[in-house]
Amino acid sequence: MEENQCLQNKKNMMAIQDSMDVLYGKWKISIISSICFYNKRRFSDILNDVVGISNKMLSKELKELETNKVITRTVLDTHPITVQYQLTEHGKSLQTIINNLTDWGIKHRLEIIGSSELLNIN
Asked: How far apart are CA 49 and CA 52, in angstroms?
């Protein structure tokens, strides 16, 4: 392999690792997706969207996403106080990835299950 190609591959792998450092974990993609699909979400909305996550884990993951400038946290002057999350401009660049993952997940489900019924929501 050409030396320039090896160097480019190493840079690409570093970029993948940087991305994984931000998105790593069981919950982050689901949290980002919830906010992506709805634009703005309250803590309780995300908690309902992300099946199986605890309050404590959601709080931790939201703080990490905020630290990495993927989401913003806005405290609204309501009684009781309402906290709202939305993607930053930087976070919105993940929209294409979320859409691609959604499309792939639909195709994968069809491939594995062989059914066009994707969700069984009551």
From this structure: 9
